[in-house]
Specification:
Layout (H helix, E strand, L loop, with lengths): L1 H24 L9 H19 L6 H23 L1 H8 L3 E5 L2 E2 L1 H6 L4 H10 L8 E6 L5 E5 L22 E5 L2 E2 L1 H6 L4 H10 L8 E6 L5 E5 L1 H4 L7
Antiparallel strand pairs: 1-2, 1-3, 3-4, 5-6, 5-7, 7-8
Helix pairs in contact: 1-2, 1-3, 2-3, 3-4
């Protein structure tokens, strides 16, 4: 029983430390990882897991190790923001894989990427024919960016000589049945406006609403929880 309690304590401790280290290292650790970020994240996670289950080791030894990795990552992120040379060293640089009908075999070899993997990535992005692609670039985070040929890309309003109004970010007003008062104020509306619009759409209580949003034209869109409308699941 004592061992179980100690594991619980160590697990909670490692989670708290991991949380603060992630905050320190930044959101990049949770999005697209570079090679260095990947190595550090895996290592810190392994140390935290070892700390949670090891009953013999000193608690502070793995904590110090995680702090060292976290601080080094934080310092490198600062350095790479100021030095282009070090940025390329730690994060790598983009490589052209395909351009204007030509495959850059040397860059494929440097990236340890074979042609089949490249073609698969092309298909996943909707390009089943290489002739539809102008340029393909391997980014430092391992993702491939594609520039379609001008004749194959979707048309834009500019192509059609149209000037649509600029859209703005839609604001959440109600989330999980809770009113977000600050967001409501930012839209320039008040609770009276909200209640009036909800009643027009047949809703009497905010708690019954899963999500409600307000767009730049001051239109209120309401989404209810599916289970409350129909308990049948089409995919069951």
């Amino acid at each position: 029983m004592n061992n179980v309690l100690k594991i619980v304590e160590l697990s909670l401790g490692s989670l708290i430390i991991l949380f603060f280290l992630t905050k320190l290292m930044g959101n990049r650790e949770m999005s697209q990882l570079t090679m260095f970020d990947y190595i550090v994240s895996i290592t810190i996670g392994s140390i935290a897991a070892e700390m949670s289950t090891s009953l013999e080791n000193n608690f502070f030894e793995p904590v110090i190790a995680m702090l060292v990795y976290g601080l080094v990552t934080f310092l490198i992120s600062i350095i790479t923001c100021k030095s282009l040379t070090l940025r390329r060293f730690f994060t790598g640089k983009s490589k052209i894989l395909f351009d204007n009908g030509k495959l850059y075999r040397k860059n494929f070899s440097k990236s340890n990427l074979d042609l089949n993997e490249f073609l698969m990535e092309c298909r996943l992005k909707g390009f089943f024919n290489l002739s539809d692609i102008q340029t393909a670039i391997l980014e430092p985070n391992g993702k491939i960016s594609f520039l379609p040929k001008s004749t194959k890309r979707p048309s834009t309003p500019e192509d059609l000589n149209l000037s649509p109004n600029q859209e703005k970010v839609i604001t959440n007003i109600i989330l999980d049945g809770y009113l977000l008062k600050e967001n409501l104020c930012k839209t320039g509306n008040n609770i009276t406006w909200l209640e009036t619009n909800l009643k027009k759409q047949g809703f009497n209580s905010i708690k019954d609403i899963y999500l409600a949003t307000c767009d730049s034209n001051n239109n209120l869109t309401v989404y209810v929880e599916w289970n409350k409308q129909n308990k049948h699941n089409l995919f069951e």
